[in-house]
Amino acid sequence: MAATAELPTVKPLTLSRPRAIVDWLSTIDHKVIGLSYVTTAFIFFLLGGIEALLIRTQLVVPDGQLLDPRAYNQVFTMHGTTMVFLFGMPVLTGFGNYAVPLQIGARDMAFPRLNAFGYWAFLLGGLFLYASFLLGAAPNGGWFAYVPLTGPTYSPGINMDFWALGIIFLGMSTVAAAINFVVTIMALRAQGMTPFRMPLFVWTILVTACLMIIAIPPLSGAATLLELDRRFGTHFFDAQGGGDPLLWQHLFWNFGHPEVYILILPAMGMVSEILPVFSRKPIFGYAAVATSTVAIGFISVTVWAHHMFAVGLPLVAQGFFATSTVVIAVPTAVKIFNWIGTIWGGKVLLRPPFLFAAGFVAQFIIGGLSGVMVATVPFDWQAEDTYFVVAHLHYVLIGGTVFGTLAGFHYWLPKMTGRMLDERLGTLTFWLTFVGLNLAFFPMHISGLLGMPRRVYTYPPGLGWELPNFISTLGAYILGLAILAFVYNVVRSLYVGEPAGDDPWDAWTLEWATSSPPPPHNFHRLPPVLSARPLWDLKRRGRPRGEAPDWIEPAESGDPVCPSHWPLVVALGLALLFAALLVSPVWAFAGGLMCVAGIVGWTWPAAPEPGA
Amino acid sequence: MSVTSLKSLNFERGLVHGHQPGWWGMVMLIITEATLFVYLLASYFYLRAEAPAWPPGGIDRPDLLVPSLNSVILLSSSVPMWWADSGIRSGSQLRLMLGLAASFGLGALFLLIQGFEYARLGFAPQVNAYGSAFFTITAFHGGHVLAGLVMMALMQVRTWLGHFDARRHLAIETTALYWHFVDGVWIFIFATLYLSPYLFPALAR
Amino acid sequence: MSPLLPAGPAAARIADLTYVIFGLAAVVFIVVESLLLFAVLRFRRAQVSSEPKQIYGNAPLEAVWTAVPALILAVLLAFTLRTMSAVAGPARAAPAQGAADAIQVIGHQWWWEVRYPGAQISTANEIHIAVGQPVHVDVSSTDVIHSFWVPQLQGKIDVIPGRINATWLQADRPGVYRGQCAEFCGDQHARMALLVVADPADQFSAWLEAQQQPAAPPTDPQAQQGVQVFARVGCITCHTIRWGSTGAGGTRGPDLTHVGNRRTLAAGTLPNTPGTMAGWIANPQALKPGSDMPNLNLNGDDLQALLALLEGLR
């Protein structure tokens, strides 16, 4: 390509590897942080997957004996908690972290140290939650922690304290990342990148970040009130004291519903990047896709009580929430048609990123349809809290989020590592995941419609639940194989993968205008941004059209930021604070002091004399 | 090929729509904290809607005199903060120091009086949902006030060390913004906890 | 236990709606997946030498595919709202007078207390109704949130402490319909089932009358000994047997006045036979670990005496 030959050559590194672990602890490079996020999230994904296999093995036959109910309750609670908080959000945050500055032509995020803090808080929060297993006291009240079961009377142990404190801690990580994304996208876009020229992935991260900013408060607030009820004798959720168990549900689902859009929108963004590149034509209806993303964001805060259709709300209220839920299905449907329209009339390359992206569309259709079904309230009165809902949520979360993430991995790992993944292994991973997902979760529609409730550690024979459960377990193991194939592919590629070069996919967004992996400052120069496909413009036209300058400099975020250990110090202080809240007020105070000291160090100016 | 030194579309002279990114970061933080208070106040109204009497359990409606005076003390602390902020913009270290100190003093007085009020209330957070909500909401706010006081103290020290001048004072801007938020949100809390039992007695069934 | 095998009008309305939405979903599924599959297969290439036509969108087409789903969903919503009032509406009405028309169901960890206030009956894990008769059900909980769900008769309703929710049941043909708790409620959530027995009106009345009778004093000497054992080993702390017009005993566990007639034990966990009854009393923690019923470590004689007593309570 004529354009890339003109960029100065940069010696590609196999990995932007800091020289020692100490460097990693003080890194503020969004690429290192992004990679750390996705790697750590993936490890938690494996843990959550083991929990899933334990569940499926316990349920493979009726009256299973693998796990007693106490153990089972911990396993399924941690499965949900891990997948949502320790895999889903962080992996998408990680991809956002890596790709957004590159896609907008910036040097780093707006707040590089805040970025690092977000990662450390995530890692430490996850370790905090998992430390509970070491005490045999992992959270056991469900990932949604309904009171009064999780209140002081019925969960007297320390399990749910781990949960509540862990959730509050992790919430800080999420909000930090969200603030960073919003300001970065507002402030650091390359010249010429008006909002409607931003990559669609960036749109989805922007909306997701806004949702995080308003959805984490009700969760952290609710978890705090729960801890107060549990340990300080307050009465927010206990009916006898004038509280209300349903208050918990309202607060939780005010978080929980935007949360599911937080989990799906970035994955949709990745699909919107990948399908065009592998169909060799632009996204069909960019404006519609961007607008529906924003619309989904807005509407998502109005639908929360569709998780509460069985609690006895007035019919009028249920009707309202049914209506808003149906409304949100419209922009979602629109996206599906835009994606099909992108593929239609293209020249499609069936390479792994495309397979996963198209697979996303195929399975999200199923998940979306079962979602519309449970939005029809009377049907939900039967399906709620049965395996039908488990089927729905896994089709959208695995068929959606995981497929999108795998698509993103296969698309962007070459940029991150400089090495291509093996195509045949990638295709194998796709088929195994596809078969595994459908085999594991389609039968759950059936077991749900045969009356099987959720969150049961076992079930009796003779109700027809045996066969669907058996098939589901088979599918779960196939999914496990798929993930093994993927891990093997990734590790192998680091050693013997073909060098990727700057632009292995002949793609069109700015991250492909630099080396793989990019240099620490991301770009030497940028092509001008005159449309949503700046590289396409450059490659097709050779010279940019109009009076625009030939090249532009990437945006700076003010004073350059040096590596810093303060983010880690603050995160460690918080970890000490939360861990100590379980045992000792004195140590908690020490943790608080450490945080404050860390923040002081962090905000202390590097240059002592202003204007000198 | 020529390389021009134009920066980003929005990033002229290092500003985004007239403010540095750090300022916008504080705006985002304020939005998330404000959302938290929205949900806490909504919870108060939710619990109230289900109660047969409000306040329940024989508790009297809150005293208005001292809390109103205390509110004046808190809200007025925004004035010296504004004065300090605009002072350093024109390069006056003195205004900055004095303004910070005055705000700090008023804020600390607010917390002190709040502490005395807690003792005078006659009910504990553990008595019922009303007590729980009342103490928790005011304590959350008090925590935010305390954080603001710590920020002001830190800014005071840094002012003495000469960190701020007419051009470099982002930390003061963000501190001021945060403090105005803390004062502003108190208006809503005061209206909810102290005024609404008087203004809307019919809200409880 | 399938909602798609309805035995009463409420479940039947829901099943009808289910078939409609399922049909709609199936059609949409076939159409959209076919379009996707067709696009992928038809336009696939092994390699690409030139670009296809670069199409950016098509406003009229996009308007159509926004409007059509919106329309379909609006129709769906209309069906939904209509069915909602038909299915839930009757529950909102105040219960009719008479013993048979209104019952209370109270959720406990992990069993269902069933009361017929008009007839002053308390039983457990089994509801009897007359065929064709709508029965108002008030539900609440003494501890955590459970969910009352008998899929062949009605949608589920959560059972929440501090709150009374209302639903209604009606069976249009005789049968035994299984239900199960559908809200995670702790260790034995999986073993908190119940049965709804729908009988023709005369059989139901006979059952009701029999339930209203106090327990017949045992004539068998072993059963008489069982009465002593019942008090001595502590069963009486949690369970009541109504010998006279009022009961004597605790209310933490199910009322046992007519336990011999129940079809299951331990909230649907076991069929009610002498063997399972013995096994349950001897070692409840083995069958339902975590349940409130402790292992009493009874000797053989005491166990046999209790069995004789309880089996006789019909």
Name the features.
heterotrimer, A: mainly alpha, 18 helices, 65% helix, B: 205 residues, mainly alpha, 70% helix, elongated, disordered N terminus
Order of helices and strands of chain B: EEHHHHHH
* Rough outline of chain B: elongated
* E-strand count of chain A: 1
Task: Describe the global form of chain A.
Answer: globular
Q: How does this structure look, described?
A:
The complex is a heterotrimer of chains A (612), B (205) and C (314). Chain A is mainly α. Chain A has 18 helices and one strand. Chain A has helices at residues 2-6, 21-25, 30-58, 69-103, 112-134, 159-187, 200-232, 245-279, 286-299, 315-343, 352-375, 377-383, 387-417, 423-449, 466-496, 534-541, 566-581, 585-603; one strand at residues 348-349. Chain B has a two-stranded antiparallel sheet with strand order 1-2. In chain B, 70% of the residues lie in helices and 2% in strands. By secondary structure, chain C is an alpha+beta fold. In chain C, strand 2 (102-108) and strand 3 (111-116) form a beta hairpin. Chains A and C meet through helix 4, helix 8, helix 9, helix 10 and strand 1 of A and helix 1, strand 1 and helix 2 of C. Strand 1 of chain A pairs parallel with strand 1 of chain C.
